[in-house]
Amino acid sequence: MGPCPPGTRREPSPAWISDARVKLFRRGQIIVRAGSTPAEWIAISSGAVGLITQVAGSTRVAVAALWLGDVIGSASPLGKHVAQYDVTALVDVVTINIPWTRLAAGPAPQQFADAEQLYSATETRLQEQIFMRLAGNGFQRLVSVLATLAAALAPGIDTAWPGRSLSLPVAQACIGQLSGLSRRQTWIYLGQLAAFGWVTTARTQVTLVGLRSWLALMAEVDGRGLACIASAELCSDVLAALASRDGLDRLDGLRAVLFTGEKC
Fold it and tell me: Ranges for the Cyclic nucleotide-binding domain (predicted)?
C-alpha cells in the first residue's frame, strides 16, 4: 500500500471495522484522560479535538488539534498505550472505537497496513504543529494555529461559496495556548489580522474571514517558506493572492460577517 496524498486519509478496510462501535462526544467532553490506559483503538470520524497537558500545578495548556482520521486511543502516537494528553472535544466529535484486545489478537495484513497509515498521518499532523511552536515567531505561530483550526473544522462545513467565514468554537485564550502566546500577544496579533480584514473578534471569540483562503494558506507556506507570513502585512498579501485566485475579494467575506451574519 502506497502513501496517501498529502492532506488525505485512507478509509480503513471495512473487513476490520465492520463491527466497530460509533460514539458521540459533545463539545468540551474529555474523550481520553492523560495517564489513562485506553482499552480501545479510537479514530476520529468527524469533528476536532484539542490535546491538553497540565503544567505548573493545575495549569492546563492546549498544545495541538487533531481531526478527521486521526487516531487518539490505544497504540496511537499520543503516548502509545498510556495517554500523554487529555483529549477534549472542541466541537461535537464522532469516533470509531474497537476494543484493543481484538486488534491485538492477530491483525490481518490489510488491517495492519491501514492502521499504520493512520498512525503515520496522526504523527505527522501532531509534529507539524509542534514544529511551528518551536520554529515560527509569535505571529507566524498564531497564523498557523488559525489555519490549522480552519482545516480541522472545515470538513463539516459547506465551503462552496468563496465568501464563507468560520466562527471558531474555541476562545482566544485557547488559541493563544495553541500558539504558545500570552493573552496580550494573542490579542495584539489578532488585532493586526483584523485590521487587514481577515478576522473579526467579539469578546473572546474569533471568526475567520475568507475561509477558503485560510484553508489554502499552509500549503502556500509549505511552498514559499515561513517568511511569507512573518508579519500581518505579508500574511494579508498571501491571503489576498489566494482569494484572488479563487475569485474572491476579501471584503466580500468581511461584509458577510458584519452585515448579513453569514457564518458556518
Answer: 24-103
Cβ contact 70:43 at 8 Å: yes
The predicted pLDDT at position 15 comes to: 62
- Between strands 166-167 and 205-208, the pairing is antiparallel
**Domains with residue ranges and CATH for the chain:** 14-132 (2.60.120.10), 136-260 (1.10.10.10)
24 forms beta bridges with 94
C-alpha span between 167 and 208 (Å, rounded): 6
Angle at CA 57, nearest 5°, toward 179 and 75? Answer: 65
Looking at residue 7, what is its pLDDT? 42
Q: Where are the alpha helices (DSSP H) in 138-231?
A: 138-153, 172-179, 183-195, 211-224
According to DSSP, the residues that pair with 62 across neighbouring strands are 52
Q: Tell me the one-letter amino acid at 88.
A: T
User: Alpha-carbon distance 14 to 20, whole Å?
Assistant: 10
* Dihedral angle sign, alpha carbons of residues 133, 139, 140, 145: positive
Could you read off the pLDDT of 91-117 as tens digits, one per residue? Answer: 999 999 988 877 777 556 566 677 788
Short-list 150, 168, 169, CA closest to 159? 150
pLDDT tens string 215-249: 999 999 999 999 999 999 999 999 999 988 865 54
* Separation CA 52–CA 33 (nearest Å): 9
**Calpha distance 15→19 (Å, rounded):** 9
